[in-house]
Amino acid sequence: MISVCRTGIGDELRSTTYFTDEDVEQLYLRSDLERTADLTGFAELERAGFHADDLYRNSQLGEYRATVRMFEHGYLTRVIEGLGGVWITTDSMSMERVDELASSVKPVLAAYPEES
């Protein structure tokens, strides 16, 4: 998972966190950042994504792929696949790169954690 994120994003990658309905695990945190984020609180919010696929089904927008949240210093991108999800934080970058990141993470997430 981390190698896919690093390959697509490079030095703009801030963190990668895997979560399920019951667990949360930070997989990567860039060395210049502090471990002060409330991972449990973030996971509570991001778990709402498990229901997004059902809520957006049959939308004229097409298949639900990812959620992007914009912050002052970058983005949080949430990708859900099956019973697991990942949120990835990055520095500011183009939406095209965020889209590429979400597309490349989804198939890896489908096999995670068996093939991390």
Automatic annotation (TrEMBL):
<dbReference type="Pfam" id="PF24366">
    <property type="entry name" value="DUF7522"/>
</dbReference>
<protein>
    <submittedName>
        <fullName>Uncharacterized protein</fullName>
    </submittedName>
</protein>
<dbReference type="InterPro" id="IPR055944">
    <property type="entry name" value="DUF7522"/>
</dbReference>
